[in-house]
């Protein structure tokens, strides 16, 4: 396989990784929004009195729900969202590392002799 073909393949892989990274960031942002919403619900539940009625929307219908059950559901949802955020963070880290490795493969290699020569020329002029 020629150098050009390898660079093209590495570049295509890098672009795929960048797209995967963008998707993962978007998913992480959605999870953050869900976490914020559910935290607000949890805070609202904390100020309820036993006399307050809680309703759950099922399709277009509001159905009465026990406060304890609703509070437990929100707590479970928060736990799930937090675990998904941790999983997504690990995935983001993994994809970011893979992307960085591919970036190094795609980046053109400059031979050390080409880099060293201008420095030597500058020293000779001084």
From TrEMBL:
One Gene Ontology term of the molecular function aspect: unfolded protein binding
One Pfam family hit: Prefoldin_2
Region (Disordered): 91-126
Coiled coil location: 7-44
GO biological process: chaperone-mediated protein complex assembly; protein folding
InterPro entries: PFD_beta-like, Prefoldin
Keyword terms: Chaperone, Coiled coil
GO CC annotations, alphabetized: cytoplasm; prefoldin complex
Extent of Low complexity compositional bias: 109-118
Source organism, top-level taxon: Eukaryota
Stretches with biased composition (Basic and acidic residues): 97-108
Similarity annotation: Belongs to the prefoldin subunit beta family.
UniProt name for this protein: Prefoldin subunit 6
